[in-house]
Amino acid sequence: MFDECLRVLAPGGHMLLAFKVGDRRRQLDQAYGHELSLDVYWMSPERVSGLMSEAGLVMDAQMIREPDESEKPRQGRQGFFFAHKPKGPGGEASD
């Protein structure tokens, strides 16, 4: 997936990724008022960061958000990563 993100981003282009932090899979059959079949994968920040780096994306910022009191505990932590595609020819970072 991150290889495709790198491919479609313009040189120097940015992406923001939000994901569930953890190590599990949750299957949903109903969400947002609709019946569906959706697997939600929770992944560790280290794994996601490693996959992004392997694809050639450069990490600019990372944030892990804890759920607050108004949220259900099962919603868990959320990761937010901000990254960019290098500007240089051949994919090397130039900034």
Structure description:
The protein is of the alpha+beta class and about 100 residues long. It has two helices and five strands; from the N terminus they run αβββαββ. It has helices spanning about 1-10, 45-55; strands at about 15-20, 25-30, 35-40, 60-65, 80-85. The strands form two sheets. The protein has a three-stranded antiparallel β-sheet, with helices on one face. β2 (about 25-30) and β3 form a beta hairpin.
Question: Outline of this structure?
Answer:
By secondary structure, this protein is α+β, with helices and mostly antiparallel strands. 19% of the residues lie in helices and 41% in strands.
Structural class: alpha+beta
Query: Averaged pLDDT, please?
Result: 90
DSSP helical segment count: 2
Q: Assess the beta-strand content as a share of residues.
A: 35-45%
What general form does the structure show? globular
Task: Describe the strand arrangement of the main beta sheet, using strand numbers.
Answer: 1-5-4
Instruction: Kindly provide the radius of gyration, computed on alpha-carbon positions and rounded to a whole number of angstroms.
Output: 16 Å
How far apart lie the N and C ends?
24 Å
The total count of strands amounts to 5
Major sheet characteristics: 3 strands, antiparallel
Order of helices and strands: HEEEHEE
Into which percent range does the helicity of residues fall? 10-25%
Question: Unreliable segments (pLDDT under 50, ≥5 consecutive)?
Answer: none
